[in-house]
Structure formats: C-alpha cells, structure tokens
Amino acid sequence: MFTNLEHLGLAVHDLEAATALYSALLNQEPYKQEHVASEGVDTVFFRVGGSKIELLAGTTPDSAITRYLTKKGEGIHHVAFEVADIRATMARLKEQGFTLLNEEPKRGADNKLVCFVHPKSAAGVLVELCQEIVQ
After folding, report:
1. Per residue in 45-66, pLDDT tens?
2. I need a surface site. Which of 41, 54, 95, 109 has the fewest CB within 10 A?
3. Nearest to 39 by CA among 78, 73, 71
4. What CATH class has 2-132?
5. pLDDT tens-digit readout, 102-114
6. Are 126 and 79 in contact (CB under 8 A)?
C-alpha cells in the first residue's frame, strides 16, 4: 500500500550550488547530506511539509545520475512513494506487469529500502518505492 509521497528526486550537476539555491528558495537548510557509494551519488534532503526534496549529484562517470544528467540535463529525476511493505508492493506490481529495475529492495539514502519502477511501465516517470528501515 502506498502511504505517502515520500520525496521528489532532482538531478543536479553541482550539489553545492543547488543546495544553496534550494536553501534560499525553501528558506531553510537541508536536514541531511549523504553519500551513497553503491549508487555513485551524493544526496541532500530538505523537508517540505510531509514530503521531501532530494538533490542528487553523480560522483562517478557511470552512475545513473551522471548518465541521466548527460542525457537529459538537470531536473526532476524521480518521484518516490513510501510503502508499508516494499516486498509485497513489488510482488503486486510485478504481477500486474510493471517492470522493476531491481529484483530485491536495496539500501538507499535516508535510511530506506528502495526499489525502482521502470519509466516505460509508468508513463515515462521513474517511480521509487521506499520503506523505512526499522532498526
């Protein structure tokens, strides 16, 4: 079950400049910065009401964000939804014919398990499923 619009992911070339821009735009500082080595990305998070804005910058030439920026430029990269049970949601979507980009949830930024739905099966939008990791 989808429970919340978790965040919008924005791909940026210069994370420091984008952080300054969004700090001014939102009139607040980010609450978190994180390096996700497995994805070759640095992230910065801002809270906006019950949702978040995630700025993403690639740290390696072959990261998905670097490739995205090269192909499409800066802008909205993905829409993320919080789900109650990521594995059950993945199974339901797969059964309904959606193409998932990973077979198992993986650890993402901001203490989440994540899985992506291919844009070709979601009307051109990269959809991220997120579930909080309970520790």
Report:
1. 999 999 999 999 999 999 999 9
2. 95
3. 78
4. alpha beta
5. 999 999 988 899 9
6. yes
List, for the chain, all residue ranges whose pLDDT scores fall below the cut of 70.
Answer: none
Residue type, 110: D
CB 77 within 8 A of CB 70: no
Q: What are the structural domain ranges in the chain?
A: 2-132
Q: Which residues of 94-113 are buried (b: 16+ CB within 10 A; e: fewer)?
A: eeeeeebeeeebeebbbebb
Amino acid in position 105: P
The H or E element spanning position 92 is helix 86-95
8 touches 79 (CB < 8 A): yes
One-letter amino acid at 116 equals F
Secondary structure of residue 66 in the 3-state scheme: helix
- Which two three-digit tokens encode residue 97? 């014919």
